Structure formats: structure tokens, C-alpha cells
Amino acid sequence: MTTLYKNLKNIKITSKLTLIVAFPILGLIYFTVAITLEKLEIVNEMNLLQDLTDFAVKSSSLVHELQKERGLSAGYLGSQGVKFSAELQPQRQKTDLAIIELHSFVKAFHFEAFQQEIQKNQKTAFAALNRIETQRKRINELNIAAENQMRYYNQTINTLLIGINYLSKIITDVELSNRIVAYVNLLQAKEKTGIERATLNNAFSQGHFTTDMYNHFILLVGAQETYIENFYLFATSHQKERYQQTMQSQFFDEVEKIRKKVIKKQLKLKLTLDLRNHLGYGGLIHQFKNYILRGQSRYIESFHQQYQSISTILAKFHHLPDISPSDINSIEIIENTFQSYKKHLAIAIELKKQKKRANEIDALIQIDDAPAIQALNDLLSHTHLGIEPAYWWKIATGKINLLKALEDQFSSDLKNYADTLKKEAQSTFLFYLLITGGMIFLTLFYSKMVLKETNQAYARFVPNEFLQLLDKDDRLVNIQLGHCLEMNMTILFADIRSFTTLSEKMSPQENFKFINAYLNEMGPIIRKHNGFVDKYIGDAIMALFINTNDALNAAIAMLKQLEQFNQTQKTPIKIGIGLNTGKLMLGIIGEANRLQGTVIGDAVNLASRIENLTKTYDSFLIMSQETLENLTDSDQYTIRFLDNIKVKGRTGNVNIFEVLDAEPKAVLRTKIPIPLENQGNDVGEIPCGSPPCACPLVVTPSGCPFNKQNKPLC
């Protein structure tokens, strides 16, 4: 380092001035090139989006055909092969054609530009499609339950939809991302509509729902509503208007009417089955006969409980909408029969008191159950769903076709919007290229002129002896002991760089105004992140945090807020922040007339020294290994190992780490990432050269890393 200093000192003043001008020029070139590359990245992103949109259209076409095949297969199974056999085979041919088209598209698709997730998803989808002939054979042979058949199609379609959903993961443009999310939610709503079509097609073909299929139908209706609500959250006003216009179709209205009819029929079936249970074993009649045989009072109590339940069921029957006269007649027959049993129970009780035997009571009490049983069977016959499967298929398919038309329109809108963004990004890219070239030319021209004038003025007004008088200002913190509470905390030290030099240019009033403005920006951030300021030490801040994540998040937020603060200042400033976690003593110090709350301990000292190291390493934010280990999830931050240092007052060395989350993008690209597995290595033993470079170093604008002795290591 001494040799380097002597060499720099012996450079001619003209060369020094040239270097001073060269660094800003290099920085300007770097920033303008970075912005240009950013625009180029947008162009590439739009190219990827167009490829994925084409992929989504092909996948969506196959999904549509699979949805129709699923519905026809469900109807075929529900009717035991009687219905939909003529429609099923042509539909299978359409599905096969869509599979071939998607397969050809995927073979020519460049998955290398994307993550492996989408390629893995496609392999899963085609693995499922390869089993489709086996499923079709079992359907033809009626050798598969409708639930299992639908599960196969549902899982295959869902895999394809997941691939389409990948669109939303690669887009950074907010409006475009919202359009994609709206599109994906519409696809999901259409898929649930398709499952509903298949479910009811199977039920209408059988005349009733199988076990749990009705509950599945209700969940499907709710899922469609949820996806449409999500669609409305992200869709554009034009897309919302298009959907509302589509909803005016008779297909939407007729589907809603059929749903209501199905729900009414199912409610009626449930009430009828409840009545049948009360007629059967363990029901009201069974309790009546048990009492006659055994004469125990518990049967009387069970009878009255059953009678109360039956009365509730019959009351619900009477309140059913659109109940037919024949159903009302059947209900009255059942109701009269149960009332007769209740009346004769009182007679049976009196006969039991008279010590009558069971056969004697049976001879005196005669109740005909046949009319009630027949009425119950009539009610059950009227619970048949009674909707022609072919009609339902026509209505549901009409609704799905309308949703398919919307889907095609929205996918076309996506492609057009992406193309517009691409053209804008290309124009901006070319514009920045021209601006970059122009700025570099003007900067070089102006720098040459300024350098010439500065060389002439420098020799007259700035003697070399004056520069030798400048020196760095070291800051010391005095700490006193006192009564305290020992606890584990994270300490934050923040200090303004070169503030002494800056303050010399301001009056006392301007100094206080500037300091208060700066602290007014930083203090609220600390409180917002659950910390508190222990003290202000001139332009420095000392803050305490119980939670380590809060401390690190506050430090990052302070650095980001500083960028906005600098925009309001004539002279931008830089700050350095140091973090350390450990045990400290928190308490009150002072004397009778002057008390002050503070914290003391080795952890505090180390935090202060780490903050000072931000100047040495030209870093904005450095933390200790204790702080790193106390983070709940360090992977969410951009952290690199910086150095293993000897700290005054400590016997062992300390590992320090640099946090890069608040760094500007241009600066971040110059930082060499330090893998955490290299922690603890001695600087001289860490390899450097082949990526990733593992040097805990400061990087110069030219890209060459230096250690803290300023010796190049690459």
C-alpha cells in the first residue's frame, strides 16, 4: 500500500486531473449502457411473451376439446352406453387432432429461454395424454366409475392450465400482468363450467346424483363465481364490458334455471329420504310397536322425538316452491298416518295401564300403513331430475362456446398489447443508444475543455502544499457502566460520510436545519420497523432493535429513503450503516441532576466499529455474523461475505458481511457475489478469477477487486 501511495503521489498533476475526469466519464458510460440494456431486456421479454401466448392458444384449444370429451364420456357412462355414443367418437377424433397440433408445436418450441418448470409441466401433461386410449377403452366397456373418469380428465386439463398460468410469472409490466391474470381466471372459470357440464350430464343420464356428486356440483358453482370475481378484479374495463354482454345470452340464463331446478329437486329428495327413514327401522312406527311389545316409557319419549322431527320435515315440504298438487296430496296422506299413530299411542298407553297384553292391544288398534308407504314412493318417483341430457348438453355447451370466444378474443388482445410494448421498447432502446453516444461525445468534448482550463487555474490557485494538510477525521465513542438489564438486541449505527467537510461550508443555522431535515427522514423509518433511537451523536444515529429482521429492513429502508432525500438537497450525501447483534446492558446512567437512558456492552462497540468499516470498504451497509445468524430467513436478502477482521478489544477475528439490497442496480452489478460457503476463509486463501469470484472485496469501476490494503487480487 505504501508503494502504491508513493506511485500515486509522484504522478504529474495533469495525469491526476485526467484520472479525476475519467472516472465520471466511465460512470456515465456505465449508467447509460445499463439503461440501454434494460430496454433491450424488455424487448426480449416481449418476444418470450409472444412465444408463450402462442403456446397458451394451442394448449387452450386442446383443453377445450378435452372438456367436451369429458362431458360426453360422463353422459355415456351415466346412461350405461345408451346416450352420446354417436357424438363421442367424432369428439375423440377432434381431441386427437388437438393433441397432435400441440405436440408438433412443443417439439419446435425453445424451452431453453425459460425455466425448467414449464418443460417439466409439459412432460407431465403428455404423460397423462399418453394414457387417454386406456381410459377410452374402459369407458367403451363401461368399466370405470364416472368419478374416476372425470378425475383423469380434470387432472390432465389442470396440468395444461398450469402451463398457461406460467405466462403471469415472467412478466414485469404491471398492466400486462393484470391482463394475463384476468385471462387465466377466465380459463379457470371456463374449466369449472366444463366440469359442471360433465357432472350434470352424468346425473341427468342416470336421473339422479351419485354419492357426493351433488356436493361436488355445488362446489363447482361456487368456484366459477370465485374465478369470475377474480377476473373482474384484474380485467380491463373493455374486458368487463365484453363479459357482461356475453352474460346476456340465453345460454347463461337457461343454465341458471337448470341449476335452480336441480337444487329444488335435490332438496325435495333429501326431505323425502328423511321421511322414509322415519318410517323404517328405528323410526316412529318402530318405536310405537316397541312400546306395545315391551311397555317401556323410553319408547314413548323416542316416539315423540321422532314425531317432532317428522313435523319439521313436513313443514319444510309445505314451503317448497312450485310443489305439485299430487305431492301435496302425498304429504297429507303421510301426515294423517303419523297423526293417527300419535292418537293411537295415547290409547295404547291407557290399555297398558289396564294390563292388556300386546296381542290384545294389536287387536284393538288397527293402523293401515299402506297408503303412507305408497305416498312416499310417489314422492320419491317425483324426485327424478327429469332433465333431458341432450338438452342440458346443448345449453351448457352453448355457454362454454361463448366463454371460448371470449378466451380467444382476450388471448388475441394479449398478443396485440405485447406487440405494442415490444415496439415501444425497441424505439426506446434505439433512442437511448443515440442518447448514449451523444452524451459520451459531449462529455468527452466538454471534459477536454474543462481539463485544459482547470490545469491552467489549478497551478495558480491550488498549491500542492494545501492538499497535504487534508486528513481523515476519526470518531471515538466513550462508554460508561451503570445499573442495567442484560438482554440480546441488534444495534444500528448510521453516520453521514464526510460530514465535517460538508458542515464547514454551512453556517450554524444551516447546519442545524440540515441535520434536523436528515434526522426527520430517518427517525420515522426506525420507529416504523419496531426500533427506537437510543441517541443522536452529532450527525450519527444509534438505534436498537429487538428483532434482527426489523433492524436489517430498517437499514435498507433508510438507504432507499436517502436517495429521495438527496433529490431535495444541493449536495447529495452518503451514509454508512453498521449492524451487530448480541448481549448488552440497558439502563440509566448519570448522576442525581442528570440522567440518561443508554446501552453499553461489547456488542455496541462492535456495531460502532462495523459502521466505521463502511468507509474502509466503500460499502453502504455492513453487518456482523451474529446479525446474519439471527435473521429468520437470510435467503430473502442479497448478502455477500466481505472479510474476516481483527477488531480492537477482541481476542478473535470477526466475520463481516455486506448487504446489497439497497444498492443501485448499476453499483450492484459491479459487486462480486461472495458465496456464504466461503465464510471464515482467510483473505489470502480465497481463490479469485474463475466465476463466481469469492473475494470479500471492494470493486473499482473498472471491475478489478481490491482488498482493504488496496492490492489487486485478480
What does this structure look like?
The chain has helices spanning 2-9, 13-78, 85-107, 116-129, 132-140, 146-165, 174-206, 213-234, 237-247, 250-279, 284-294, 297-318, 325-353, 358-364, 370-381, 389-461, 464-468, 499-503, 508-528, 548-566, 602-616, 625-629, 665-668; strands at 484-496, 531-537, 540-545, 575-591, 594-600, 621-624, 639-646, 653-659, 698-699, 705-706. It contains 23 helices and ten strands. It has 714 residues and is α+β, with helices and mostly antiparallel strands. Helix 6 (146-165) packs antiparallel against helix 7 and helix 11 (284-294) packs antiparallel against helix 12. The protein has three domains: 46-248 and 390-425, no CATH class; 267-381; 484-689, Nucleotide cyclase, GGDEF domain (Alpha-Beta Plaits). The model is unreliable at 455-481 and 679-714 (pLDDT under 50).
Gyration radius, to the nearest Å? 41 Å
Instruction: Measure the end-to-end span.
Output: 16 Å
Number of domains: 3
Q: Helix content range of the residues, please?
A: 55-70%
Could you describe the largest sheet, including whether it forms a barrel?
Answer: 8 strands, mixed
Number of helices: 23
Spans with pLDDT under 50 lasting ≥5 residues? 455-481, 679-714
Compute the average pLDDT: 79
Q: Beta-strand level of the residues, as a percent range?
A: 5-15%
Global shape: elongated
Number of strands: 10
Structural class: alpha+beta
